[in-house]
Structures are given as structure tokens and as C-alpha cells.
Design a protein that fits this description.
The complex is a heterodimer. Chain A is about 40% helix and about 15% strand. Chain A contains 17 helices and 15 strands. Chain B is globular, with a radius of gyration of 22 Å. Chain B is about 40% helix and about 15% strand.
């Protein structure tokens, strides 16, 4: 059992479902009391503001749980989905549905037969890491909408795992889309939002099997990449192209080439021991950048969500931008993270600003918001991490003028 | 889904079942405030420890951090399987013991969520052992939105539980002492109510958020009367009345001159003194006149995010010739509000009342494009072109005619220097 005092517990499974499915014009029903979906919208889903509020709550009450008012909720979901003219319905479980064993899969079948809409459930509860929920949501979406006969495109690429809980505002991915275009790739799907220039996000999902390669930029996209390799033979590269060297390496891997040996940095940062705290793929992208763009000799990573899938051998994986170090670890425990942050040798910390209260203040702290931690608190912060803008952002904190 | 599903003309709103039913909880920018944690931590010398699935903890943690309670709030993450099997009890006990060993507070609230509430987990043994081993009082509470609208809310229960720290006091009534209940942001000692009370010889006013310690708080047992400013405190004041003989009156924050006069009358009855308000009222009416002139003729919406009742504010505005056109409300209309609705029905029957949680309202702003002033951040979400006046209970707690003038001042300020609804919500945490 973990104890938290200064930190917020990280977003969990149904937050991940929301993040993955938000932009697809479906109806995501969080099957719990009203408060669950409300808090997602108010805090964890900044896209909610004055938008169509894709995520709604079932409004479960005590007597519903005791009496098992399943018919009532099925009716309500059908009425709402049809009334709002949504394109699919996704049901996501909460601690309540988990404990009382609500048959959400049965709900889904019934609602699908009554509405004719695609309906699926995502088995979530309330304690699992958010990438698990997002990952399951992607698989469910793929099962419902991907077209196995989508025409192939030799330079097509899907960007998988681009959920806002891991990568922030869509604008932060702009540099990646630009670089892909400059490299001659055709962006087919981001699988969690609109593809620039394409008005129908579900169409991009349908076409996704036609890609030549998948770029996985967070752990929540790994399972889908493996599925797409198994089903369609699409290889995938895993990594977040933070900074200059990372971008070069990542693009080389996407082209099916060996990453070039990084150049020596023009100007090295004075720090000697950095600690990066965050989502695994993003954190290893940062590590690569800090080592190769800024010459920092030791960079340790605290992966706050599970990293096992990132490092497992996978036949479809053709590239990995992650160099695991001896001191890296998985942990979201507040006390453990605080102890590591206050190691006297650590002189640089790159993490969400929410971690600041855990430090004694002696290390340089570079803010890199992780929405699954700080939600909308730092949503509007001005920062970058990919490619040259990412390098510039980090350089502004690490290098003298 | 047509907006007609989400609204009703106020002339047709006669009982709870008339209120538009929301088949699912949609936008719902109306649930903020008065969280269990902030209610518990009003009690001085207390710490709150919440145990539950991390999803539930994350929600409460936002509120606790936003309200500045970080130092007094802890969370213990529990897996659903452990809860179902009851395996979390020893873990919670050990975790609480560890935390309490590091804290000086005399009281700890153990807050559990919907799962433990539904499972009926029995924490009696855990609490008894912890009280014996730590020498501190442990009070069990629930942050359980699954109970909303069905019975006494978890917030009210938490507030009522404060009676445990009063009931053993030997009551010795003090002539000049008054208890103010139901305030979070405390009323200013330089404000109108304090002045009116002092003129009537009541210059020893106790408010929970201003009590530095439990000993001061226990002094409420000796109050000559209690004044309740928010329904949340009716449970506690009821116990003080029935079990300790302390007279009470319910006089919630209001904006209408006639309502305020009635409330001062109720307070006077409860304390057994005549309160002198004629000059204060006359001055307020005079000061309000030019501001009401500006507001008259403008189209207004009132939301339920305001401090006080949206029906009461709407009634005051409508009575003064302001074009109140829209109300955003929730289905849990409080008993005292039905009288206000009846008066509003007579004053302006065509006001449209929306269920702010209805999914038909998701993303709908165009029906409210013409609204010029929106009270409450929930109304401001829908009324994109309006000057937004939050009147949040997290800004300032005003009372009496002072509240009316503050409301009008805020309105004039918003008309001259509008602040974006987004900034109110996210810059000031008004929706948590």
C-alpha cells in the first residue's frame, strides 16, 4: 500500500480510456458515481472545456448498486448515445463496477444490439496505471474500426500512444509531425486525436493497417503496435525523439537504418548526475537527449508507470530509443522518489513541477509536465521536448547564454 | 438530443420530479465545493487520511491541494481486490499509525470512498485500536458520491461529526456569544454582520474556520444561539439545539433586500435581541440603485455555482427589473428553495431552468450567446459572451446587505474589466 502526502496519485485506468478515446466523437461512459467522470473532465481532460464532453458518468447511486438497476442504465446509455448522435459507445469500469462485478461486457452487447452502434467495454477499475486503460481502449478501437483491407502506403506511418496524459497538448507533437513530413513520411493516424489535415479521426483508424511502420511514443501504444505487427506485419519503432540527437536516431530507425553515432555536443551542461521522472518512453527520450545533446554523464530514470513492456523482446520491434541504466527503476512511491531526488550527487532533475515539493532544492529542476500527474495544473505551461524546440527548451534551463 | 430534454419553464417547476432528468451525468459544472476533506479539516487540530483506490484519492487530492490543505492531508492507496477481501484493514491501520506517529494533531479523520461504503466495511476495531495506541480521536467519514441526493450528504455528516467535540462540554451559556455555522471562508470581523451583532451586545462570535484550537472550538457549547449560513451546518446546529438547548436559526447567504431583512429577523429571534438594520438597509438600497440601473435591461443567467441559492439571486434581480432569462441548477433543490421558486414563478414565469448535468448541454453554447451577465462559473461556461461574475464561496464570505453590494460591485467590475470564465475556473480553482 502506497502512501501519498505531497503528490497526487497518478491517473488510473479509466482516465487512460478517456485520454485515448476523447477525440473520436464517441460516448465514453464511466460506469460509476457522477463524481468519477466529473473529475476527469474538470481536472484530467482539459479538452473538455466548452467542448462536447465525450466522457460522461453513469450517475450510479447507492440503491442502483444494491438493486442492480442494469436495465435502467442500459436504457439511459442507449437514449443518450442516440440522442447525441455519437459514433460509438465505450463503457469503462470503476472501483464500484469492479467490486460489485457489473457485467459491462453484457451491457455492451445489449446496447450494440439496440442501437446498431459499435459498442465496446474496456475493463478498468481504479488502481491500475493509466497506460493499461489507454492500451486496452486502443485495442478495442482497433478491433471495431481498423480495416484489414486498407490500401498500403509505402511511406505511411502511424503514431501510436499519443495520449495527452503522456504527451500533453497536441501542439507538443507538432514538431514530430513536421519532421515526419520533412523526412518523407505520410502521417496516417495518431490513434488518439485528429491527424492534421484529416477531418475524420475514425477514418484514420480505418486506414491505419496500410502504414509501413508504426512509431510508438508511449507505453500505451505498445500493445497495439504488437497487434498490428501480428495481424498486418507492420514493424514498429519505440521512442520519444527528444532534442536533436534523439530526433536523428528516431528518424533513422523509422527509415530502417542504424542510428548515426551522435555528435559531441557544441556546449555541454555543467550538471553531472541527472534524474528523470516520468512516463517510460518519454523519460528515455529525455535521457538520450541529456546524454548526447548536453553531455551529462549520468542520467537515471524513475519510470512512474510500468516499463516491462517497453523492454520485452518483441518480434515486430525494429528500433528502440531507450538505454536502460543500472540505477533506473519503476516506482511511483512518494517516499522512494523523494529519497532519490535528494541524493546529494543529483544536480539536475527533469520532472513534472508537482515533484518540486519533494526536493531539498539543491538540484536544478527543469519542469516537464506529465499530465497524468499534474492534469490541467500545468496544461498551459510553455514547454517543448521534441526535436529542436525540445532542445531549445532544455538548453534554456541548462546552458548559460 | 434536444435542449428541451434538459430544461423546464419555471412556471412548470413545482416539485422535484418536474426537474429535467439527466439520463447520464454530462458536463456537470455544478458539483464543486464543500468537499468532505475540506469539511473535515475545518476542525482545528485535525488531520485527514483517506484510504481507497488511487482513482478516488486523486480526485480528493486535487481539492485538498487546491484549497491549501496539503500539509494536513494524506492518502493510502488500496487495491480493489484487497477491499473486497477485507485485506486492507491491517494495512490501513498500520498506515494510519505511521502517519499519526509523525503528527501532533489530536484528531484524525479516516475517510473512505464509495467501495468501502458499499461493502459496509467495519472499521470499528481499527479505530478502537488506533485510538488506544495513539491517544488521538479517530473519526470515520466517507467521500462517497454514490450517496448523493439519497440521504444526508457525506459533507453534512462530516460537519455534524464535530458535535463529538462539543457534547461533553458542561454548558454555561454566555450572554454575548454567538455561533456562526456553515462558513468556510470566514466572515470578516470588520463586516456588517459583526457590526450589527455588536450593536446588539453580541460581540463574542465564534466561527469554526477561525478557531485556532479545539479548546476555542469547544466554546461553541456556551453560545447563546447558532446562526446557520449554509444547509451543510443544519445537522450540527440541530444537535446543538436538541441535545444542548442552543437555539438555532437558518439564515443562508442571500442577496435580496427583503430576504435579508427576514433573515436578520430570524437571527434576532434566535438570540432574543432586536437587531438594528434600518440604517444599514437604507444605505444599501441607496448604494445599490445606480448599479441596478446599469444592470436593468441586461439579459442575465444565474448558475448554481454561486454562494447562496440561484433562485434567491434570480428573484432579487427579477424583482428589480433585471431580465433574468436562464437558470442553471441541479436536481438536489434544497427544501428552503421551493418557496423561492414559487415566488420566482409568480415574478417571471418564463425563466428557463436547465439541468446543468444534462448531456444535451454538452458543448452547447449557442443558445446562450446573447446572455450579457452570467453569475456563477457554471453559467459562465455556457454563456461565452457574458461578463462572468463567479460569486464563488471561495472568493469572500459576505453577509447581509454587504453581500448584495459586493455582488453588484463584482458585476460592475466584470462589465468594465471582464475576466475569462476559463481563468476563473482554472486560475482560481473555482470548480473543484
Amino acid at each position: 500500500m502506497k502512501e501519498y502526502h505531497h503528490l497526487l496519485p497518478l491517473a488510473t485506468g479509466y482516465f487512460g480510456v478517456s485520454s485515448a478515446l476523447y477525440d473520436f466523437e464517441g460516448l465514453v461512459v464511466v460506469y460509476g458515481p457522477a463524481g468519477g467522470a466529473w473529475h476527469i473532465n474538470i481536472e484530467d481532460e482539459p479538452r473538455w472545456y466548452r467542448g462536447p464532453a465525450t466522457v460522461v458518468g453513469a450517475g450510479l447511486l447507492e440503491m442502483d448498486v444494491i438493486l442492480g438497476n442494469d436495465d435502467k442504465f442500459i436504457d439511459n446509455i442507449v437514449k443518450t448515445a442516440e440522442g447525441l448522435n455519437r459514433r460509438f459507445v465505450a463503457l469503462s469500469g470503476t472501483p464500484i463496477s469492479e467490486i460489485i462485478g457489473t457485467d459491462l461486457k453484457g451491457f455492451a452487447r445489449t446496447i450494440e444490439s439496440r442501437t446498431g452502434l459499435p459498442v465496446f467495454m474496456v475493463p478498468t477499475a481504479g488502481s491500475e496505471p493509466y497506460p493499461e486503460g489507454a492500451s486496452k481502449a486502443f485495442l478495442a478501437l482497433a478491433d471495431k474500426f481498423m480495416d484489414p483491407d486498407a490500401p498500403g502506403l509505402g511511406n505511411g506511418v502511424n503514431v501510436l500512444g499519443a495520449i495527452h496524459l503522456s504527451t500533453g497538448k497536441e501542439a507538443h507533437l507538432g514538431p514530430l509531425f513536421d519532421i515526419l513530413r520533412e523526412e518523407g513520411f505520410w502521417l496516417m493516424s495518431t490513434f488518439a486525436g485528429l491527424v492534421p489535415g484529416l477531418s475524420d479521426p475514425l477514418e484514420s483508424v480505418r486506414n491505419a493497417p496500410g502504414a509501413a511502420v508504426n512509431a510508438v511514443i508511449s507505453t500505451s501504444g505498445l500493445a497495439l503496435a504488437e497487434r498490428m505487427f501480428a495481424d498486418y506485419g507492420i514493424p514498429f519503432v519505440v521512442g520519444m525523439p527528444v532534442g536533436l540527437a534523439g530526433c536523428n536516431a528516431f528518424m533513422a530507425m523509422l527509415r530502417g537504418e542504424e542510428p548515426p553515432a551522435p555528435d559531441r555536443p557544441d556546449q555541454a551542461a555543467p550538471q553531472r548526475h541527472a534524474l528523470v521522472i516520468g512516463e517510460p518512453v518519454m523519460s528515455y527520450g529525455l535521457k538520450h537527449c541529456l546524454i548526447h545533446d548536453f553531455g551529462i554523464p549520468r542520467v537515471d530514470v524513475i519510470r512512474v508507470t510500468p516499463s516491462q513492456a517497453l523492454f520485452r523482446e518483441s518480434p515486430g520491434r525494429s528500433g528502440l530509443l531507450a538505454e536502460r541504466g543500472p540505477h533506473d527503476r519503476d516506482s511511483d512511491g512518494e517516499a522512494e522518489i523523494a529519497a532519490l531526488m535528494n541524493d546529494p550527487s543529483v544536480d539536475l532533475i527533469v520532472a513534472d513541477p508537482c515533484y518540486r515539493p519533494l526536493t531539498n532544492g539543491s538540484a536544478v529542476f527543469v519542469d516537464l509536465p506529465h499530465v497524468a500527474m499534474s492534469a490541467r495544473i500545468h496544461w498551459d505551461m510553455d514547454y517543448d521536448y521534441i526535436g529542436e524546440p525540445g532542445y531549445d527548451y532544455l538548453a534554456s534551463h541548462l546552458l548559460d547564454d | 438530443m434536444d435542449l428541451d430534454h434538459a430544461r423546464i419553464r419555471i412556471e412548470d417547476l413545482r416539485e422535484k420530479s418536474d426537474f429535467p432528468f439527466a439520463p447520464l451525468e454530462g458536463v456537470g459544472p455544478n458539483l464543486a465545493g464543500w468537499g468532505v476533506i475540506e469539511t473535515c479539516l475545518l476542525l482545528p487540530e485535525s488531520v485527514a487520511i483517506m484510504a481507497g483506490p488511487s482513482a478516488c484519492l486523486r480526485h480528493s487530492a486535487f481539492m485538498a491541494h487546491a484549497r491549501g490543505f496539503t500539509e494536513r492531508f494524506y492518502m493510502l492507496c488500496v487495491e480493489e481486490l484487497d477491499m473486497t477481501m477485507g485485506n486492507h484493514l491491517p494495512k490501513v491501520e498500520r498506515g494510519m499509525a505511521d502517519i499519526l506517529a509523525r503528527r501532533d494533531e489530536k484528531v484524525a479523520f479516516l475517510i473512505v470512498g464509495c467501495p468501502d461504503y458499499i461493502l459496509g466495511t467495519d472499521f470499528t476495531g481499527v479505530i478502537n485500536r488506533l485510538e488506544a495506541s495513539t491517544g488521538k480521536r479517530i473519526i470515520l467519514g466517507a467521500m462517497a458520491p454514490i450517496t448523493i441526493g439519497l440521504k444526508e450528504s457525506p459533507f453534512t455528516s462530516a460537519y455534524t461529526s464535530f458535535f463529538e467535540f462539543l457534547k461533553h462540554e458542561k454548558r454555561e451559556p454566555k450572554d454575548d456569544r454567538l455561533n456562526l455555522l456553515g462558513t468556510f471562508m470566514p466572515l470578516s470581523a470588520s463586516g456588517e454582520l459583526y457590526r450589527v451583532l455588536a450593536e446588539a451586545g453580541l460581540d463574542d462570535v465564534l466561527q469554526i474556520p477561525l478557531c485556532p484550537d479545539l479548546e476555542t472550538f469547544a466554546g461553541m457549547a456556551h453560545g447563546r444561539a447558532s446562526v446557520v449560513m449554509h444547509p451543510l451546518a443544519n445537522g450540527l446546529s440541530g444537535k446543538l439545539q436538541s441535545e444542548m438547548g442552543i437555539p438555532t436559526c437558518f439564515a443562508p447567504t442571500a442577496y435580496g433586500f427583503s430576504t435579508i431583512r427576514e433573515q436578520y429577523g430570524l437571527i434576532g429571534e434566535a438570540v432574543g435581541r432586536t437587531l438594528s438594520i434600518d440604517t444599514t438597509e437604507a444605505d444599501a438600497v441607496e448604494a445599490a440603485r445606480p448599479m441596478l440601473d446599469v444592470l436593468r435591461g441586461k439579459t442575465v443567467a444565474v448558475g448554481c455555482g454561486i454562494n447562496g441559492s440561484p433562485f434567491e439571486l434570480a428573484l432579487f434581480l427579477a424583482d428589480n427589473g433585471v431580465n433574468v432569462e436562464t437558470l442553471f441548477a441541479r436536481g438536489t433543490i434544497k427544501p428552503y428553495e421551493w418557496g423561492l421558486i414559487e415566488r420566482l414563478r409568480a415574478a417571471k414565469p418564463d425563466i428557463m431552468v436547465y439541468n446543468a448535468s444534462h448531456p444535451a448541454l454538452c458543448g452547447r453554447t449557442e443558445p446562450f450567446d446573447h446572455v450579457e451577465v452570467a453569475y456563477g462559473v457554471d453559467a459562465g461556461i455556457f454563456c461565452v459572451n457574458a461578463a462572468n461574475v463567479p460569486l464563488s464561496r471561495y472568493q469572500e464570505q459576505k453577509y447581509g446587505y454587504e453581500a448584495t453590494l459586493w455582488m453588484l460591485d463584482q458585476t460592475m467590475d466584470a462589465l468594465e474589466h471582464p475576466v475569462a470564465n476559463y481563468d476563473w475556473i482554472y486560475g482560481h480553482d473555482f470548480l473543484i
